[in-house]
Design a protein that fits this description.
This protein is an alpha+beta fold and 95 residues long. The protein has one domain. It has three helices and five strands. Strands 1-2-3-4-5 form a five-stranded antiparallel beta sheet. A hairpin with a 3-residue loop joins strand 1 (2-6) and strand 2. The longest helix is centred in the middle third of the chain and has 17 residues, at 54-70. This is DUF3567 domain-containing protein. InterPro entries: DUF3567 (IPR021951).
């Protein structure tokens, strides 16, 4: 897991769900064919989270890459995260 963003309102974590285990690879164990990476967006105000994977994660990754090039303001980032937060249905629980 990699914390990508943390503010008073939101937290964004990049999760490498099927990251390769170096020991398993060395032993020749079966490894996932396609690692599933995703992003967890936590709306701290509502206490809910949304997990983006698949095409949603790909679109969000593109957004992050654009942010890295254009250096948006915090307000622009928060506005974008607000849009994703409307998808949040899961209450935040300790993992």
């Amino acid at each position: 897991m990699h914390m990508l963003y943390d503010s008073d309102s939101f937290a964004v974590v990049h999760i490498l769900a099927n990251a390769t285990d170096p020991e398993a690879a060395a032993n020749g164990d079966d490894l996932p064919q396609m690692p599933r990476h995703g992003f967890e967006i936590v709306d701290k105000r509502s206490g809910k989270e949304v997990y983006l994977d698949g095409s949603w994660a790909e679109m969000f990754q593109q957004r992050i890459q654009a942010w890295q090039q254009n250096m948006p303001s915090q307000e622009e980032v928060e506005d974008t995260l607000e849009g994703y937060a409307t998808l949040a249905q899961m209450p935040v629980v300790m993992h």
